[in-house]
Design goal:
- This protein has 347 residues and is α/β, with parallel strands linked by helices.
- It has nine helices and 14 strands.
- Strand 12, helix 9 and strand 13 (336-337) form a beta-alpha-beta unit.
- The longest helix has 17 residues, at 2-18.
- It starts with a helix and ends with a strand.
- Bound molecules: zinc ion (ZN) (2 copies).
- The site of one zinc ion has 5 residues, from loops.
- One zinc ion binds at residues 152, 154-155, 245, 304.
Length: 347
């Protein structure tokens, strides 16, 4: 434990070199007396054993669950996106799950890049991928940086990160506090750890590490030893927000007030059943629309649904509920984007 806490302090010092934390309008992430990270609202509820055990068994039982109703896919050859790397038209491409390729202000970056088929400590038992990634890694434009929200296997996929690092030694990897060692041990360089409220400049772009309501776990006894976060990427022309995995929380309104309005926000709309287990750490589609409104979003793109077999809700349900909620809200139906895997839109 002492070593671990030491590691976290060391990480914090590295991040402080990068950013002026004292000037941040956001508080750093709170920790408990053991040094583990917590949420400002306290520890989250993940359901009782009576809920979780049958859920685990059901997940094993869905080994052959069909992908009918999974999102449509269009193969993206990346030609336009590679040319656009210099031209700088703001684009977003859904690779699948929480993985987006975003281009704005002349940079190209990825959120939570996950190309694995069954991201898991035990790949044979991991959640099945229903839809192939929308682009091959080889077809991506040069990636300036990657932002990672937390260490769950569907978001921090080491085989993908290793491949990206090998492909381009200049790619930078921004992670919340306590996640750096995992990458560095996998021979990935250019890794920077940030606390909530810290920022890094990348040319004229500012990368903000921001709060989220979630948790972390990668192995038996590492619960909440590393931090989770959302991210804002703000440039001279466009402002983009990526919520990572999160429950609905007052932080959205705070972030909207301090950094909004956003031209585009990426919000998760899946993994909300069983409700007793997911409610505090994931949003349902209606909450995702409420979050977009709190963030003062002009447009919201739905992510984190339909790609992996992670939860109990029917595959077709999240996008339907997301669009219905948007239509009856101030956001409006046309500002709520359900896109195909592999589809590119300008924003
Ligand atoms: Zn998660
Ligand atoms: Zn997730």
């Amino acid at each position: 434990m002492g070593l671990c806490v030491g590691g976290l302090f060391l990480s914090a010092n590295i991040a402080l070199v990068l950013a002026d934390f004292s000037a941040s309008p956001f508080d750093g992430a709170p920790r408990d007396e053991e040094g583990r990270f917590t949420n400002p609202s306290g520890e989250l509820v993940h359901g009782t054993l009576e809920v979780r055990l049958p859920f685990m068994l059901r997940r094993m039982g869905t080994y052959f669950r069909s992908g009918t109703d999974a999102p449509e896919r269009v193969a993206n050859d990346g030609v336009f996106l590679r040319e656009n790397a210099q031209q700088g038209v703001p684009t977003v491409t859904w690779i699948g799950h929480a993985t987006l390729l975003v281009q704005m202000g002349g940079v190209s970056f990825l959120t939570d890049p996950t190309w694995s088929n069954r991201p898991s400590p035990v790949p044979l038992l991991g959640p099945k991928r229903f839809v192939k990634p929308g682009m091959a890694i080889a077809d991506l434009p040069p990636i300036d940086f990657v932002v990672i929200s937390h260490n769950h296997y569907d978001h921090l996929d080491l085989p993908t990160l290793r491949e990206l690092a090998k492909r381009d030694a200049n790619t930078k990897f921004y992670v919340p506090l306590g996640n750096g060692d995992l990458l560095r041990k996998a021979d990935i360089t250019g890794v920077y750890e940030l606390d909530w409220g810290q920022t890094v400049n990348f040319g004229s772009i500012v990368i903000h590490c921001l709060p989220a309501r979630h948790w972390s776990k990668r192995s038996i006894n590492d619960d909440n030893k590393s931090l989770w976060s959302s991210w804002a990427i703000t440039g001279e022309e466009k402002r983009f927000y990526f919520s990572g995995d999160t429950g609905y929380f007052p932080g959205f309104e705070d972030i909207g007030n301090k950094l909004g309005p956003f031209d585009l926000v990426a919000v998760p709309i899946g993994a909300y059943e069983p409700v007793a287990m997911m409610r505090e750490s994931h949003m349902n589609p209606e909450e995702a629309i409420a979050a977009a409104l709190d963030l003062q979003a002009k447009k919201a793109i739905a992510i984190h649904y339909g790609t992996f077999d992670l939860s109990d809700e029917p595959l077709a349900e999240p996008p339907k509920r997301f669009l219905a909620a948007a239509k009856s809200s101030a956001l409006g139906g046309s500002a709520a984007w359900i896109v195909k895997v592999g589809e590119t839109r300008t924003f």
